[in-house]
Amino acid sequence: MTAMDRGSILRVWLPLVLGLYAVYYVFVHGPGPRDAVRWVGLGVSLVGLSGVILARYTLGRSFTITAKATDLVTAGIYSRIRNPIYVSSVTLILGLVVMMRRAWWLALLLTIIIPMQVIRARREAHVLEAKFGDAYRQYRARTWL
Q1: Distance CA 108, CA 88 (A)
Q2: Which residues span the domain enclosing 54?
């Protein structure tokens, strides 16, 4: 197995399998009524999970946990959204909240998770702007969030 194969497994396939299992588990075993709203939550969760996986795949070896400026990735989903992992993870969590109908989770999402993602996105923007300068500023001007 080459390093790229291993990296692809850790970056894309493992999160996909674990994410699908987590969404399945919450859908089947989580609290809340089994009705149309639960199905809507499932759909929203799967859209969010798909976005996270697509973004991580698009980043390739540029994916890091901490803000590092290795490459300025502007292709694929990154051609429209600067922070698709953050947007998609919030979408995934929102779908789980809808499935389980837990209002306090919504409060957690609004008061902790979203502000935390905004802070992380701003830190990354500073790192990218410092490294890529005008190229990053032009990219930022033509993309959302």
Answers
A1: 17
A2: 3-141
CB atoms within 10 A of CB 66: 8
What CATH number is attached to the domain comprising 88?
1.20.120.1630
Average predicted confidence (pLDDT) for the chain: 88
Beta bridge partners of 81: 144
Question: What does DSSP assign to residue 23?
Answer: H
Dihedral, CA atoms, 67, 68, 71, 76, nearest 10 degrees?
-20
pLDDT reported for residue 9: 66
| pTM to 2 decimal places | 0.85
Domain count, the chain: 1
Only one residue has tokens 């009524």, namely 33
**For residue 2, pLDDT beyond 50:** no
